[in-house]
Automatic annotation (TrEMBL):
Pfam families: GFA. Residues 2-115 form the CENP-V/GFA domain. This is CENP-V/GFA domain-containing protein. One of its GO terms (molecular function) is metal ion binding. Keywords: Metal-binding, Zinc.
Length: 115
C-alpha cells in the first residue's frame, strides 16, 4: 500500500500501487493544480483526516458541469483527490503528487486533456 499526505499531513490517503500509468491531466483546472492523477475504485482508497489538528479538514471545489468534487486540505491548501458528485460513480482520483518523491519517481505517467 502507498500513503500520500498533504503538506501539513492533516490528510492521509492510503491506496494500492497503481496498475495503470498516472494521468497528468491538462484540462484547465488540473493543469493549474499541477495534479498527477491515479484512478481507483472508491472502495480501494482510505482517506484519513486528522480531526485533532483541523476542524474542517478539507474544502471542496466544484466547477463547470459540477460532476467532480476537488478536495483540498483546509490547513495547507494541497489538492489531495477528487470524487464524483454522483456517489454511485465507482471511481475516484488520488493526486499522486502527494506521495513522497521517491515513490512518485518509480511510477509511469501519461498526459491527457481530461480524466
Amino acid at each position: 500500500m502507498l500513503t500520500a499526505t498533504c503538506h501539513c499531513k492533516a490528510i492521509r490517503i492510503v491506496f494500492p500501487p497503481p496498475t495503470e500509468p498516472l494521468n497528468e491531466c491538462l484540462c484547465s483546472i488540473c493543469r493549474r493544480y499541477g495534479a498527477l492523477w491515479a484512478y481507483y475504485p472508491v472502495k480501494d482508497v482510505q482517506i484519513i483526516r486528522d480531526q485533532a489538528d483541523v476542524t474542517d479538514p478539507d474544502g471542496i471545489y466544484l466547477w463547470g458541469d459540477k460532476m467532480c468534487e476537488f478536495h483540498r486540505c483546509a490547513k495547507c491548501g494541497c489538492v489531495t483527490h477528487w470524487e464524483a458528485t454522483d456517489k454511485s460513480y465507482p471511481k475516484m482520483g488520488v493526486n499522486a503528487r502527494m506521495l513522497e518523491r521517491v515513490d512518485l519517481e518509480a511510477l509511469e505517467t501519461l498526459k491527457s486533456d481530461g480524466p
